[in-house]
Amino acid sequence: MDGADERREVRATYDRIAAHFSKTREHAWPEIEAFLADAPRVGVALDLGCGNGRHAELLAESADRVVGADASGRLLCEARDRAADRGFDADLLQCDAAGVPLGDDAVGRAVYVATLHHLPSRDARVASLNELARVLTQDGRALVSAWSTAHDRFDEEAGFDTEVDWTLPGGETVPRFYHIYAPAEFEADVADSDLDPIEFEVSSGNCYATVRGAKQ
After folding, report:
1. pLDDT-based confidence at 122, cuts 50/70/90?
2. pLDDT tens, residue by residue, 19-56
3. Which residues contact 136 (CB under 8 A, 6 or more apart)?
4. How many other CB atoms sit within 10 Å of the CB of residue 74?
């Protein structure tokens, strides 16, 4: 299976579990709330890998326009319903994380959380980080996260590929691809991309990077 096939499989997986997955993703992560606390207003904000739109909703409080992008069409339907129910506006785009249909230097703030680790190869993951760098303004800020070996469910020190089952109502399990990052590996991938890293941390079993737009 080549990289394109693997990405299609990830998209199909999240289309399949979208409705149930969305019900378990009600609240914004505290790390994203902290990143956005007291943030100055921007013209355009991006939620890359937006899922059901819970973080797009938070971004809408400090942006004139919010773009929510996800590979899963059914998750975007969940995000559309959430926006209608909660009364916030978001332009929802179906796209791959390595091909965002926005112009260069278009985004003043972005979150790219719990998505990077679903991409099937290092090349694909770094390409998506480069795409985030392309759309961010030079002084824009983004928060990137990925699942980490620091999580208490894992006993490995080096990064590795695995499958983590999602259990649907009724007991059916759906495997999901993950690349579990070692913290040093995550830092290296971000540093090797076009993003300009500001700060790294590990919190709640996830690696986080606060970054600026493309390096000059």
Report:
1. very high
2. 999 989 988 999 999 999 999 999 999 999 999 999 99
3. 105, 107, 108, 110, 142, 195, 211, 212, 213, 214
4. 19
Give domain 3-214's CATH superfamily: Vaccinia Virus protein VP39 (3.40.50.150)
102 phi and psi angles, rounded to 5 deg? -130, 155
C-alpha distances (whole Å) from 120 to each of 4, 71, 161, 201 are 9, 14, 8, 23
Q: Which two tokens stand for residue 156?
A: 């490995």
First-residue to last-residue Cα distance in the chain: 37
How many separate helices (H) and strands (E) can be counted in the chain?
6, 9
State the DSSP code for 202.
Answer: E
Q: Dmax of the chain from CA atoms?
A: 52
Structure tokens at 203: 């919190």
The conformation of residue 60, written as its DSSP 8-state character, comes to: G
Does the pTM exceed 0.90?
yes
**H/E stretch holding 64:** strand 63-70
Categorise residue 208: left if φ over 0, alpha if ψ from -120 to 50, beta otherwise. beta
Torsion angle, alpha carbons of 177, 46, 69, 96, to 10: -60
Instruction: Determine contact, residues 118/177, Cβ cutoff 8 Å.
Output: yes
